[in-house]
Amino acid sequence: MNRRITGRSAALQSKGFTLIEMMVVISIILILLGVGIPIYSHSIMRAREDNLRKNLETLNYMIYQYGQDKQKAPQSLDDLKSAGYIKSIPDDITGNPDTWEIEPGEDVILSIDQTEPGGIVGVHSGSNQIGSNGKAYSTW
């Protein structure tokens, strides 16, 4: 007794997915997420650290350039901004521009033409978190 499936009953039987098919698809998605999320979070951290390095390099260079041009060190980061060396004070890795640690230079002279000792000679991050290289951001 071969029963032939008519067009209407065949359409009713082939609709939808089975529970096994759904579980396989969800398992594959979970595996891909398990691999992708750590890679994504590492790339986000690497971008934040690269931005910190760039900001440190820019600020320290602008402090040096300000000292060369004005024959005195800036007294604060706002001096760099008001003199037009930077448009705005960049954010620290903490996401806040107010957490930069100022390196004072009471006896440091940035150039041989410098008339007034003092001011700031550099900046460091104010964060006490550890970077991907194993060193605290404040030591960079």
Structural overview:
- Helix content is 46%, strand content 6%.
- The chain is mostly helical and 140 residues long.
- It has one domain.
- Strands 1-2 form a two-stranded antiparallel ribbon.
- The protein is rod-shaped.
- The termini are far apart.
Main sheet summary: 2 strands, antiparallel
Widest β-sheet, arrangement of strands = 1-2
- State the distance separating the first and last CA atoms: 83 Å
Sketch the topology as an H/E string, one letter per element.
HHHEE
Q: Low-confidence segments, ≥5 residues, pLDDT <50?
A: none
Give the gist of this structure.
By secondary structure, the chain is mainly alpha-helical.
Features:
140 residues, mainly alpha, 46% helix, 6% strand
Which helices and strands occur, and which strands form pairs?
Blueprint: H1 7-13, H2 19-70, H3 77-82, E1 101-104, E2 120-124
Antiparallel strand pairs: 1-2
